[in-house]
Amino acid sequence: MTDIVYDKVGIGYNTTRRADPYLAGRLYSLLSPVPGGLYADIGCGTGNYLSALSDMGLRFYGIEPSEVMLAEAKARNHTTTFIKAKAESIPLDDHLFDGAMATFTLHHWTDMQQGLTEVNRILKPGAPLVILSWTPEQILSYWLCHYFPRMMQRSSITTPPLDEMETILNRSGFTLSATEKYFVQPDLQDHFLYSNKFRPEQYLRPEVRNGASSFTIYAEADEVASGLALLEADIASGKINEVMKQYENDLGDYLFLVATRQS
Predict the structure, then answer these.
(1) Domain housing 240
(2) Ramachandran sector of residue 126 (left: φ over 0; alpha: ψ -120 to 50; beta: rest)
(3) CATH number, domain containing residue 198
């Protein structure tokens, strides 16, 4: 993905994107932080989760390729070190960090294998990498597929199935030690793609769509227009409840992965 695309995603990002307290708490817990440890936020964006975990006492470096997002992150986190870099090429020393997190960023990487290998290089042996992402199976089970099928199909191929992801992690020097499903809750505060699973009317708001890369990168204007018209009509008629029920499942909407750097 080019820097121009990264910057496009970053424009107005914090209008609807903020750290959700529950997700921040899970990231902290899964990182299993050590006293005095140093952590990396890979693809930190505007620094929302970095800031939330810093408030919990963790020290971070933020790594992000977008100048637009970095400017916002720096303005909100004055004591944090930020590095303008892609995951595939991180200009930092080996074995520097006690752990790392990567939230909603893998789908933006141009070479996931190389990116994970680089993250492995900058971690200490035995350090955890906590990923928050999704699987193709999960994203194709969103009711958004009913209204924006082509956009969702394009989005689904940006991350590998779980078994392939585990293979990539292994080849990068990690062991997949745990996974944890995340089901979107009605009080979710961070408006990523499926955050409004229970509030379909929110997708009619341009600022909500602009905060999700599926709409800003993988969507076509004609499909968005027709999908929104159908969605609005279904909300008005109540048919949306039938559509949403058809997509109920136990797959989880997103997935935490905890990978451990091999010694």
Answers:
(1) 3-261
(2) left
(3) 3.40.50.150
**Contact assessment for residue 102 and residue 130, using Cβ atoms and an 8 Å cutoff:** yes
- Report which of 152, 21, 173 is spatially closest to residue 100, judged by C-alpha positions: 173
Q: What is the pLDDT along the chain (263 residues), one digit of tens a residue?
A: 444 444 444 444 444 568 999 999 999 999 999 999 999 999 999 999 999 999 999 999 999 999 999 999 999 899 999 999 999 999 999 999 999 999 999 999 999 999 999 999 999 999 999 999 999 999 999 999 999 999 999 999 999 999 999 999 999 999 999 999 999 999 999 999 999 999 999 999 999 999 898 999 999 999 999 999 999 999 999 999 999 999 999 999 999 999 999 98
Number of domains in the chain: 1
Give the integer Cα–Cα distance in Å for 139 and 134: 7
